[in-house]
């Protein structure tokens, strides 16, 4: 006998938000596949111009440390209470990594040569808006909580607004995954499942849960 569980809510991280939108019934499978493909094709225009790295610091500490690099580096994702991603120019990333090494702060480069969730994405805006103009996002069957910085809320997202502009912001703005998880914990959710071939967020969810119980 096959049992199928239906979650109380879904949360997506960066490109994973496309899968969340499909699972929640916001996008059809062809629409979700198109968003994935158009997003990836657009990012190819940025290849070689940027990079990303994982830093074991909370966002506030990291923001202070990034100030000397100005717009060359920025926070791209807040995954947990002490796990943050940065994006930016390769030379600036090298300088920042060297500074962290001197101070004993763990920094790990991510195997990409572009800087998503940073200002480098801005030239792609018109292309993404044009190529995804025909999307028809529906009301979700399952509450979907956004991790896009400008759409972050304690309330479920109005998923009819997951149009071309939303998917541009999904690629441009920082991913506020940790903040969204904290909101769900505060609302009483206690069981989280990460659906990924290489789960990396589950430990951060556990740390967030421990912090909220303290």
Strand order of the largest sheet: 3-4-2-5
Give a count of the beta strands, DSSP E runs of length 2 or more: 6
Look at the helices and sheets and give the structural class. alpha+beta
Helical residues, percent: 25-40%
Number of contiguous helices? 8
Radius of gyration over all CA atoms, rounded: 17 Å
Give the percentage of residues in beta strands: 5-15%
Inertia-based shape: globular
Biggest sheet record = 4 strands, antiparallel
Head-to-tail CA distance between termini: 41 Å
Kindly report the average pLDDT value: 92
**pLDDT < 50 runs, ≥5 residues:** none
What are the secondary-structure elements, in order, as H or E?
EHHEHEEHEHEHHH
How would you characterize the overall build of this protein?
- The strands form 2 sheets. The protein has a 4-stranded antiparallel beta sheet. A two-stranded parallel sheet has the order 1-6.
- Helices cover 38% and strands 13% of the residues.
- It has 214 residues and is of the alpha+beta class.
- The model has no long low-confidence stretch (mean pLDDT 92).
- The protein has helices at residues 16-23, 29-43, 59-66, 90-102, 125-131, 164-172, 177-186, 202-213, and strands at residues 10-11, 51-55, 73-80, 83-88, 107-110, 144-145.
Would you summarize the structure shown here?
With 214 residues, this protein is an alpha+beta fold. It contains 8 helices and 6 strands; from the N terminus they run βααβαββαβαβααα.
């Amino acid at each position: 006998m096959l049992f199928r569980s239906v979650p109380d809510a879904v949360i997506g991280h960066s490109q994973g938000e496309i899968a969340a939108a499909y699972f929640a019934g916001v996008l059809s499978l062809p629409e979700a596949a198109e968003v994935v493909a158009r997003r990836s094709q657009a990012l190819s225009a940025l290849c070689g111009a940027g990079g990303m790295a994982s830093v074991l610091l909370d966002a506030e500490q990291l923001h202070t440390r990034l100030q000397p690099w100005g717009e060359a580096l920025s926070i791209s994702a807040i995954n947990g209470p002490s796990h943050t991603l940065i994006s930016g120019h390769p030379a600036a990333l090298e300088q920042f990594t060297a500074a962290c090494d001197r101070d004993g702060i763990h920094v790990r480069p991510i195997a990409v040569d572009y800087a998503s969730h940073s200002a480098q994405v801005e030239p792609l805006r018109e292309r993404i808006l044009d190529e995804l103009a025909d999307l028809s996002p529906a009301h979700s069957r399952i509450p979907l909580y956004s991790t896009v910085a400008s759409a972050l809320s304690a309330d479920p997202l109005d998923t009819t607004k997951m149009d071309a502009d939303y998917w541009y912001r999904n690629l441009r703005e920082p991913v506020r995954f940790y903040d969204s998880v904290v909101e769900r914990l505060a609302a009483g959710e206690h069981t989280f499942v990460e659906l990924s071939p290489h789960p990396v967020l589950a430990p951060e969810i556990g740390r967030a849960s421990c912090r909220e119980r303290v």
